[in-house]
Design a protein that fits this description.
alpha+beta; four-stranded mixed beta sheet
Length: 139
Amino acid sequence: MGVFTHDLKSMLVKLVREGLGRLIVLVSVLTCPKPMQRSPEAQKKVDEAASKLALYQFYACPFCVKTRRAIRRLNAPIELRDAQNDPIHRQTLLKEGGKIQVPCLRIEGEGETTWLYESSEIIAYLESRFGENAGKNPG
Ligand SMILES: N[C@@H](CCC(=O)N[C@@H](CS)C(=O)NCC(=O)O)C(=O)O
């Protein structure tokens, strides 16, 4: 009985979590932020910089929804990689990032690649590179 109850409980928790996640996605789609507008030259630079980034994420994870909203608002065409259903992306995240936790931003740099976890840190990083005040802060 113990094992059966435990299995049923974890199945229900998973279902509720997935359902809530999808509800959050729906609300997010209905209230999606307006993408930032830039001059064609400035947008070209952003597009180039964004091509070096990839977001490992789950569709219905609230932290990923929050991060995807920031990406949309910042109008940065960052590739989204499904680490829930795509076994290659999942394996890469585990092997190279170090753990299965989403969202995680892969940042391709000169000769080295960085894996940035934590939605708030990812958003702060993206804001510092693509936000209104990008490049204006010292350091
Ligand atoms: N504090 C983290 C929380 C991220 C988090 O809890 N992500 C969950 C999905 S919603 C996760 O990666 N779980 C691992 C798993 O389900 O295997 C953040 O803000 O990014």
